């Protein structure tokens, strides 16, 4: 196989379709991945353009740079404009349909905290636009690959399937792009009533088991999984887990039937953004092994949350969506046990109202040992990683997880459940791993209160009784490669295989020929990212945009 230094015989053009992208809009790890992915691939000759909905924060950012306006055909009854621009070296295509996207706040939820009633149309329109672009409707742009992220982009492959190859050929393309459906979280499936089929612009035959139907409803994710040319998910272990009835969320049979077109590729993080030596929001930046600066951050963070400043306290952090999936509902039951032996716990995140109430109650009950910030904060997330002794990730399932990768980078020792990408990225500090100097954190299973408390006690005991081994865990984590480098190569090979582009090994000039795959009856014809500042939420006032050619 080709080495990391291999180059492509020609550039591969990828259209990445997603519902969020840091720093414009982010509700979780998806936004980080979509942002850092293009820069990781660019060095290998893969050029990525990202299609995003025109939320107010995205439109505000677009209005500050040079941009071109591109008209698309009617999309599900709406006039559609695409703004093409480059922001921080990311090439963006922004779908501007104010009736669907000009809404402040969370991209998926209304002011009442519930889903927007028209979310089906909002993200069907995104997928319809992606299919139009994939069919060559933007002059001189013919993507080889369309990568669709989660359910919000899942209908793209269905539109291409039902439109047929003719639409692409008429626009000067030899065939339609190959579609890679990426699963970031199988639990979110984009399920809508069957009677919305016509509103989504899909033909009657789409409402079948060999189409978009899933238990009598329309599932955008099912459409993507069924019609795409390849499926990727974000860790090898999760790729195995979702083929089981326990974790397949009803899709396990479909995924097993497509196992020959299913890959698990770990995510990476942008190490220019996640760099404790240059992080603009870390009070005392530090290099690996600088225990004094890291201790200063710890004391400052304790003070910021109203906890006693104590260098000897075992400070545990949690930065997460506050949901049952993330295991946060276990905290009230085990908090008394967690807080033993001079332990402090700080939680940052937002999520389910019941969990918010429970955490607020814990803060009142343990004011000197437990604190929480109920709300999303990118800056607090960075400062936590630079301050806590250990980061707790008690997820019931975790496709990849990014917080544990950031924790490794910052010297916050991860305590994580043995699932998905957590199991793939953390080496447990058992006796053998500690003695051989390879451990990076603490794993526990099953995901129950007893196991969670036991793992935390193991970590606390090592922190208190074997400081040399604890510092080695921190160093091991800091030197773990959590970047996109190795992972990007796996995507390059996959994209080359699907698009029929040759990989040329620069060392011996050998051409490595990868036979293009076939799928679903559709014949397939043959520089690192710059350092970026932490996101301050862009303005949400909708500017007046001028069309520029």
TrEMBL record:
Gene3D superfamilies in UniProt: Glycogen Phosphorylase B (3.40.50.2000)
Annotated positions binding ADP-alpha-D-glucose: 26
GO annotation (BP), single: glycogen biosynthetic process
Coiled coil: none
Pfam families: Glyco_transf_5 (PF08323), Glycos_transf_1 (PF00534)
Transmembrane segments: none
Pathway annotation: Glycan biosynthesis; glycogen biosynthesis
Domain Glycosyl transferase family: start-end pairs: 309-458
UniProt-listed SUPFAM superfamilies: UDP-Glycosyltransferase/glycogen phosphorylase (SSF53756)
GO cellular component term, pick one: cytosol
Domain Starch synthase catalytic intervals: 13-256
EC category: transferase
Record field: catalytic activity: [(1->4)-alpha-D-glucosyl](n) + ADP-alpha-D-glucose = [(1->4)-alpha-D-glucosyl](n+1) + ADP + H(+)
Function according to Swiss-Prot or TrEMBL: Synthesizes alpha-1,4-glucan chains using ADP-glucose.
Family to which the UniProt record says this protein belongs: Belongs to the glycosyltransferase 1 family. Bacterial/plant glycogen synthase subfamily.
Record protein name field: Glycogen synthase
């Amino acid at each position: 196989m080709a080495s990391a230094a291999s180059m492509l015989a020609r550039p591969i053009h990828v259209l990445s379709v997603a519902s969020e992208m840091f720093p414009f809009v982010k509700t979780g790890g998806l936004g980080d991945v979509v942002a850092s992915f293009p820069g990781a691939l660019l060095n290998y000759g893969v050029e990525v353009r990202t299609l995003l909905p025109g939320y107010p924060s995205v439109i505000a950012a677009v209005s500050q740079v040079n941009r071109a306006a591109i008209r698309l055909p009617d999309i599900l009854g709406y006039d559609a404009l695409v703004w093409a621009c480059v922001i921080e070296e990311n090439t963006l295509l922004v779908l501007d349909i104010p009736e669907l996207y000009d809404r402040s706040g969370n991209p998926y939820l209304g002011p009442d905290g519930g889903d927007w009633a028209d979310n089906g149309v909002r993200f069907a329109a995104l997928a319809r636009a992606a299919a139009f672009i994939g069919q060559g409707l933007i002059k001189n742009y013919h993507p080889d690959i369309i990568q669709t992220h989660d359910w919000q982009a899942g209908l793209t492959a269905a539109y291409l399937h039902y439109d047929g190859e003719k639409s692409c050929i008429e626009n000067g393309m030899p065939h339609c792009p190959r579609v890679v459906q990426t699963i970031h979280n199988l639990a979110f499936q984009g399920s809508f009533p069957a009677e919305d089929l016509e509103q989504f612009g899909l033909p009657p035959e789409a409402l079948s088991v060999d189409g978009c139907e899933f238990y009598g409803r329309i599932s955008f994710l099912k459409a993507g999984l069924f019609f795409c040319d390849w499926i990727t998910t974000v860790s090898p272990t999760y790729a195995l887990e979702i083929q089981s009835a326990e974790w397949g969320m009803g899709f396990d049979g479909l995924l097993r039937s497509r196992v020959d077109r299913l890959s698990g590729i770990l995510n990476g993080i942008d190490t220019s953004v996640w760099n404790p030596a240059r992080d603009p929001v870390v009070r005392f930046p530090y290099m690996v092994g600088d225990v004094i600066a890291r201790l200063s951050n710890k004391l400052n963070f304790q003070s910021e949350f109203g906890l006693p400043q104590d260098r000897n306290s075992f400070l545990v952090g949690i930065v997460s969506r506050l949901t049952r999936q993330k295991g946060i509902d276990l905290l009230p039951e085990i908090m008394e046990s967690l807080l033993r032996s001079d332990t402090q716990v700080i939680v940052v995140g937002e999520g389910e109202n019941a969990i918010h109430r429970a955490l607020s109650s814990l803060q009142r009950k343990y004011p000197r040992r437990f604190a929480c910030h109920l709300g999303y904060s990118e800056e607090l997330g960075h400062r936590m990683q630079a301050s806590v002794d250990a980061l707790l990730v008690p997820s019931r399932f975790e496709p990849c997880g990014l917080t544990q990768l950031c924790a490794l980078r910052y010297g916050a020792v991860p305590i994580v459940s043995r699932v998905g990408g957590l199991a793939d990225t953390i080496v447990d500090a058992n006796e053998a791993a500690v003695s051989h100097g390879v451990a990076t954190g603490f794993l526990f299973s099953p995901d129950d209160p007893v196991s969670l408390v036991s793992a935390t006690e193991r970590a606390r005991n090592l922190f208190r009784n074997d400081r040399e081994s604890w510092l080695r865990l921190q160093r091991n984590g800091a030197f773990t490669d959590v970047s996109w480098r190795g992972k990007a190569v796996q995507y390059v090979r996959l994209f080359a295989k699907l698009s029929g582009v040759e990989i040329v090994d620069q060392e011996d000039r050998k051409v490595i020929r990868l036979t293009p795959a076939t799928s679903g009856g559709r014949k397939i014809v043959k520089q690192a990212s710059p350092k970026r500042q932490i996101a301050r939420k862009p303005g949400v006032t909708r500017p007046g945009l001028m069309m520029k050619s």
